[in-house]
Amino acid sequence: MDKRYRFFLTTLLGAFVFAFWMWLYPQDLSYQEQNQLFLFTWDYLLERLALPGGLADWLSEFLVQFFDIRWAGALVMALLAVLLQRAVWRVGKGAYVFSLIPSLLLLVYQGDVDVLPSFAVAILLAVWACPLFLKAGWHRLWLIPLGWWLAGPVIVIPILLSVLDGRKLPDLLMLGWTALTFYAEYRLLAPQYPLRDALFGINYYRLVETLPVLQIVIPAVTFLCILACHLRFRLARPVISGAITVLLLAAGTFFGVRATYDKDTHETLAYDWLIRHERYADVIRRAEKYQPHNPVSACSVNFCLFTQGQLESRLTDFYQCGTGGLVLPSIRDNLSDITSAELLWMMGMPNITLQYCFDLQESIQNGRKSGRFMARIAECNIVNGWYDRAEKYLDMLSHSLFYRKWAQSRKALIRDEASVASDPVYAYIRHVRFKDDFITNYNTLDLMMAILYNQNKDNFMAAQYYEAWQRLGQLEQMEDAE
Hints:
By secondary structure, this protein is mainly alpha-helical. About 70% of the residues lie in helices and about 0% in strands. Helix 22 (about 385-395) packs antiparallel against helix 23.
C-alpha cells in the first residue's frame, strides 16, 4: 500500500507538471529556448565552468535546447520535478507528501519568466549531494568549494544538513570554512560580479543584480523538507493526513500560480510563440477572447490580421495604440521587437530587420546568444550578399543541435549565387527591398513603406501597412484633439 501510495503521488506530480507546460504555458518554454544557444564545443563548456554554478548552468542549457519541441520541453520539466521530489524523499525516507513541496514551489516561482531552469537543476544537484556530504567527514574540506563552484550557493543545503546531523565541534567549524571558501573563491575567480549575485546565484536568474524573495525561500524550504524527512518525521494517520496535505498543496499551488503568472505577460509570450510557428489564426482567436493592452500585443495581432487578409476590415476590432501598434520603434529588450522584425523582414527591409534582431540578441541580460535571432541575422546578411558575415553566424549555429541542419543547408546555399537567387524567400526579399541606400528614421517609416510599394507593386504588404498607418495616425490625431 505504501509503495502504491508513493507511486501514485509521484505519477500525479509528473503528469500535472507535464500537462501544465504542455497545454497551459508552452510559450514559456519557447521563451527560454530562444534566449540561449547551447553549443557542442569545448570552449562553450569551459566558459560555463569558469563561473560558480557552472555545471548546473551547462546542464540546464543542454536541457533547455529541447524546449524547441513542445512535448520534449514539457517532459524535461516534468522529469526535473519528479527527480527533485524523489531526491528529497530518498535523503531521509520520512513523510512522503513533504517531498512534493520543493517541486511545487519551483513551479510557482517559474511564473517569473526570467527564472532560469538552472536554478531547478542546481537545487537537484544539491539534494543529490546530501548523502555524500553526510558520509564525507573531513572530505567536506574540498567538497564544499567544489560543490559551490559546480552547483552554486544552493550547495549550502547538504552542508547545513551534514552539520545538523553531526552536531559536533568539527561539524560546526565547517560553517566557518564554508563562508571562508565561498568568499575566497568569489574574490579570486569571480570578482567582476556583485557579491550578492555570487552569494545567491549568478546564473539562477536572468536579470542582473536582481534577487527575488523566492530565490531564497525555495532553498530554505527544500532544506526544511529534507530535514523533516531525515529526522523521520511522520504524519499521524498517514493516509488521511496525507490526503489533506495533498489537497492543501494543490490549493496553495493553484493560488500561487494565479499570483505569480501575470496574464498579460504570458499572453504576449503566447502571441510570439504562435507567430514563431506561423499559427497566425490562433493569435486572432486568442485576441478575440482576451488581448493585453500593450503595444507588443497590438503589433502581434495586427501582423496576424495582415497574414489572414483582415488588416483593413478588422483593424479597429482590437486594441490599438496609434501607429506604434503596427511597427514598434526599436526597444532594447529581448522581446518587444520580435514581431516588428518579422514583419519588416517580410515587407522587404532586411537592414532594419538586422538592426532589430541584433538589438534583441544583445538585450538578453545574462549575455547569452539566441539561435532564433542569430538565424535571422544570418539571413539578412545572405539577402544583402554579405556571405562572409553570414557564414560566421552559420558556423556557430552548426555547433548546435536543432539549428545545425538548417545552418549547414544555408552554408551550402551561399556557395552558389544562382541557388541564392532562386531561393523563393531570399529572391522575393531581394525583389521588393529598397533599390537605393538612404538613412532610415522610424518617424518616416510610413514614407519608407510608400517608397517600397511605388518601386515595386508586388509589395502588397507595404501598401496595406501604409494605409493602416495613415488610418491609425488620423485616429490618434482625433483623440488628441478631443
